[in-house]
Structures are given as C-alpha cells and as structure tokens.
Recover the amino acids of this structure.
C-alpha cells in the first residue's frame, strides 16, 4: 500500500536525520495537501504547515486553511508581501527588466525562494526537516524554481505523477474542491501549470508511465527534460 510505504519512508528519513518532524508550505493546492496528510500520518502533531501568501489570491489562502482544518494539520501563516516588495525595490534600483514576460518570470521566482528561506528558519528552530511537494511530472520537466520550491530535504511524492497524486488525495480524505482545482503555481495572476508548460498533465503522465505520446509531445517533453537537467544535479565541480 503506497500510503503506508510513504508514511514509513518519511518516518525513517526523519529519524535517520535525528529530526522530530517536518515543516512544509501549505498552498491550498493538491500537492501540498497530500504531503500534509502523509506528514500528519507519519508525525502526528510534529508537523507544521506554513501558509505563505506573497501576492497570493484570497481563495488560495482559504483553501489552505480548509486543508489544515479538514486534515487536522497544525498551521501558521507568515506573510511575505512586505519582504518581497522591499527586496524587489532594491533589486530594480540596479536592474529593471524591460521585457514584460521575462520580468514576470524573474519576479515570480523570488516568491518560492522567500518561502524556502522561511521554511528553513522554522525547520532548524524546531528540529524539523523541510519536506517538498514536487511530483514526478514537475521534477522531470524542471517545472519548479531551482533552490525555491526545489530547495528541500525530502520529496515524498517525487515518484508519483499527477494522476497518482490525485488517487492518493482521494484516499487520504483531501477535500474534493482541492482535488478538482486547476493546478497553478500562483506566481502571477491567472497562471496555470498546463498553459505555462504548454503540455497537459494527462499527456505528461502518459509519457512518463508508458513512453507513449504523439511525436510533438514526446519531442517537447524530451527537450524540457534536457534543458532542466541542471536543476536535478548538484552544481558541477571541476576535476583537478
Ligand atoms: N545549463 C545550466 N546549468 C546550470 N544552471 C543553469 C543552466 N541553465 C539555467 N541555469 C540556472 O537556472 C536558473 C533558471 O532556473 P529557475 O530559477 O528555476 O527558473 P525557471 O526554470 O525559468 O523558472 C521556474 C519555472 O517553474 C515554475 N514554477 C516555479 C515554482 C513553483 C511552480 C509550481 O508548480 O508550483 C512552478 C515557474 O512558473 C517557472 O516556469 C537560471 O537563472 C540559471 O541560474
Ligand atoms: N501561498 C503559499 N503558501 C505556502 N506554500 C506555498 C504557497 N504557494 C506555493 N507554496 C508551496 O510551493 C509548492 C509548489 O506549488 P505547486 O503549485 O506545485 O503545488 P500545489 O499548490 O500544492 O498543487 P498544484 O500544483 O496542484 O497547484 C506548494 O505545494 C507549497 O508547498
Ligand atoms: Mg499550486
């Protein structure tokens, strides 16, 4: 049973590290809900979900609270808007990005990195590990911010494609409205994973599980995998 296996895996990893529990970012999306539910099973009250709005929608915040309530996950909120604005103001005094789309991307990536800083503060203060929420699709094509949401200690759902995460969510009692929500990184208004990646989860899941897909889809995925190789490796060191 995959739930028992993942729960045991989490317990073993945390125990091996000499830690007491885990902390994670609670977004109101399905991935963090599943990670939260698994963590709750593994560690009881030694779990902390942190809601970290950074120009986030009110709906996401309400969804995150709903997940915490329904799954009885201890949870706090740390607002990152002021830190984000303060840093951005200083950065832009040196370099202001002319291209609108590029500016949106560069600015968007500040948010997961501020969340990473926040999670590590609480992890070390409490003797916890930082647990990530990336799934197999995101990891394979590099759909995550390097050292942002990718900067974590453990990735319990990293071997599961999105449809498998959905199955797990149903089993774990994640609220229906969270399971049916359109996946979004929430880094800018109206962002959706599928539109930004230019590929549907259904197609990505199918290719990763069976190797099948149209020529165009296969080509696209392989290109994304190649371009994001650096995100799945430690920084290269010259051999001397
Ligand atoms: N070949 C190479 N070797 C070594 N390093 C290389 C490199 N190419 C780029 N880099 C480095 O990587 C940086 C670019 O990577 P990165 O900073 O990650 O930036 P990037 O891959 O452009 O952006 C992250 C993507 O993931 C999405 N995202 C982020 C966070 C959460 C979620 C979500 O689903 O919730 C999605 C986000 O919307 C965006 O599309 C470059 O600035 C450069 O420093
Ligand atoms: N507002 C937020 N507060 C706390 N953590 C967040 C917030 N936004 C994103 N995160 C963290 O970043 C992770 C990556 O976001 P991502 O959108 O891939 O996952 P999700 O929101 O859980 O599910 P989905 O991909 O279906 O939207 C989240 O799972 C969560 O840990
Ligand atoms: Mg999300």
């Amino acid at each position: 049973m995959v739930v028992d296996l993942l729960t045991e895996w989490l317990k073993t990893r945390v125990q091996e590290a000499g830690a007491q529990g885990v902390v994670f970012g609670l977004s109101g999306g399905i991935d963090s809900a599943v990670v939260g539910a698994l963590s709750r099973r593994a560690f009881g009250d030694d779990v902390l979900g942190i809601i970290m709005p950074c120009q986030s929608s009110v709906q996401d915040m309400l969804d995150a609270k709903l997940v915490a309530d329904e799954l009885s996950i201890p949870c706090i909120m740390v607002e990152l808007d002021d830190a984000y604005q303060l840093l951005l103001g200083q950065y832009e005094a040196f370099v202001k990005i002319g291209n609108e789309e590029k500016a949106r991307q560069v600015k968007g990536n500040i948010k997961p990195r501020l969340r990473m800083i926040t999670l590590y503060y609480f992890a070390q203060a409490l003797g916890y590990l930082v647990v990530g929420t990336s799934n197999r699709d995101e990891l394979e094509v590099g759909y995550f911010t390097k050292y942002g949401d990718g900067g974590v200690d453990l990735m319990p759902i990293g071997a599961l494609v999105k449809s498998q995460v959905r199955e797990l969510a149903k089993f774990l009692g994640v609220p229906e409205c969270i399971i049916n929500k359109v996946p979004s990184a929430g880094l800018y208004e109206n962002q959706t994973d599928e539109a930004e990646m230019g590929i549907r989860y259904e197609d990505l899941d199918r290719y990763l599980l069976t190797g099948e897909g149209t020529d165009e889809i296969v080509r696209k995925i392989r290109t994304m995998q190649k371009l994001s190789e650096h995100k799945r490796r430690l920084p290269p060191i010259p051999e001397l």
User: Anything to note?
Assistant: Residues 100-126 form the longest helix (27 residues). The beta strands are 21-25, 47-51, 75-77, 128-130. The radius of gyration is 18 Å. The chain has eleven helices and four strands.
